[in-house]
């Protein structure tokens, strides 16, 4: 009897313990979910913004018609507010149809401003569509027809008026049609001259109206034109110093566009940042060698997205994190909201991973090893005749230099493990 009752007690104990363990596990999972929920919830201080054209993208592509109904601007603002975005951006005609009568324009703008107020959304950036209407088929600022070039300036000034009215302080210029299918159409340096003249004119308008805009020039190598002038952020970094007001002009690098050009996006962003010219950024994702996919941020190349987020956060970039992307053509508007949430969530997950990377003991130990100062070297910072003489006299021990380890394989594997969630 005694053995049996002990066995009974043991059985009850084990079942109870298993129940408690299961409950504890569930409670832990719930705490983890709640913590995660807070950790990856977008907040205004994250400065996440979307263009009206991103969440209102109807899924049309060169081979298929729209799959989603029109999403009016005030509805787009509501969707973004519900998803947790901080800001909404717009091209002039995303909000006000071309050639709207002034009274209609004002009515539309007031309704939009009310929606932004209702949903706690700001307008950090404005831009202008110089690519959709057929009149821009040969470009806008670089078009051969001087009437088109003048109309492009007028349209941009009106878009600046609208952006200023909405409180935007950044004005993006993307020259989507500034390009060629054949270089028979104009000398490429003539295009540069026309572009410079237009940007100088708009900087002067900005000063005249005291709008305080900072212009952010956005590069793209091709699409919709066979070749687009100013194909990469680097091209614009070389162009800006030639302007009348270079201090007023920076860049708006886009992840997909630099990737289309086969470049390391973070490197272009880092060079722009180092030059004090990272005025805005277009975040999305892109598989190399394809048309401009404008995919949800982090959805195609996790590692490239990680290095970008790590750079922006380590550098202390304080500008908008703008997602210039759109949902898959297969999505309905619930799916579009998933897309918007996913962009912001992925950024915050990678931000948390960057913090773990910076705190990881093994990673930091390798970085410290790499940063260890070599034996005393002649100074090579600023040039001096004595410094150069000392450098010329110095004997380098190449065998010793070759013995210094560069454990990048381990460093990159630790990064992989951290991104894979096993560190
Ligand atoms: C394309 O990537 C361009 C347009 O969407 C817009 O003019 C600009 C603003 O981010 N990006
Ligand atoms: Mn794009
Ligand atoms: Mn863009």
Could you characterize the architecture of this molecule?
The protein has helices spanning 2-39, 52-55, 73-83, 92-95, 102-118, 146-165, 188-209, 233-239, 255-260, 265-274, 302-315, 333-359, 361-371, 385-393, 398-403, 408-419; strands spanning 48-51, 87-91, 125-127, 170-174, 179-180, 214-218, 227-228, 249-251, 282-283, 321-323. The protein is α/β, with parallel strands linked by helices and 423 residues long. It has 2 domains: 44-359, TIM Barrel; 361-420, no CATH class. It has an 8-stranded parallel β-sheet with strand order 8-6-4-3-2-1-10-9. Strands 5-7 form a two-stranded antiparallel ribbon. α11 (302-315) links the parallel β9 and β10 (321-323). α3 (73-83) packs parallel to α12 (333-359), α6 (146-165) runs parallel beside α7 and α11 (302-315) crosses α12 (333-359). The two termini are 52 Å apart. The model has no long low-confidence stretch (mean pLDDT 94). Bound molecules: 2,5-dideoxy-2,5-imino-D-glucitol and manganese (II) ion (MN) (2 copies).
